[in-house]
Specification:
This protein is mainly beta. It has a single domain (about 1-160), classed as Porin (Beta Barrel), CATH 2.40.160. Helix content is about 10%, strand content about 60%. The chain has 1 helix and 8 strands; from the N terminus they run H-E-E-E-E-E-E-E-E. The chain has one helix spanning about 1-20, and strands at about 30-40, 45-55, 60-70, 75-90, 95-110, 120-135, 135-145, 150-160.
């Protein structure tokens, strides 16, 4: 429970920063590949996201996460493909920082000893940022709030490569 509170506080702080940040490193026509690893309520997801800048503030992306865990004799795995929409904040200039918020619409595909879990839709609002170390490389952090069978608070971190 304490971890969830810390993540929630961090999300509020990150969202507050979003109001004052500039996405100077994000650009229309940019292609962004982000291998990622994370933490959520159940396990450690791993995956990848590919995004495209469709306007000065809007990015659309496809992502997939793989999650696997066990509880006693029960074992679960989930493949979670999703479509994501990002809004990149461009109001105030903060060098090398790209702050965003968005929504992910996905489908959770469960395998294993399902128990109380079932496949189905997932809607996840998120906030996040990228910090660019060079023109084409950034560290990325995204915090999300999920619904569906795996509902809860979680996050992913990765390295974003501008292609």
């Amino acid at each position: 429970m304490r971890t969830k509170k810390i993540i929630l506080i961090f999300a509020v702080v990150l969202f507050s920063i979003a109001i004052f940040a500039n996405a100077a490193e994000f650009e229309k026509g940019g292609k962004y590949l982000t291998p990622q690893i994370g933490i959520n309520t159940y396990a450690i997801p791993v995956g990848v996201s590919f995004g495209y800048g469709v306007s000065d503030n809007i990015e659309v992306a496809g992502s997939v996460l793989y999650i696997s865990w066990g509880e006693g004799t029960f074992n679960y795995s989930v493949i979670a493909p999703a479509l994501e929409g990002f809004y990149h904040f461009t109001s105030i200039d903060v060098d090398k920082l790209d702050v965003f918020a968005g929504l992910s619409l996905g489908y959770l595909i469960f395998t294993g000893d399902l128990g109380s879990f079932s496949s189905g839709l997932s809607i996840s609002p998120f906030v996040g940022s990228r910090y660019y170390f060079s023109k084409n490389t950034a560290v990325s952090l995204k915090l999300y709030f999920s619904t569906g069978s795996l509902g809860g608070v979680g996050g992913v971190a990765g390295v974003t490569l501008r292609l």
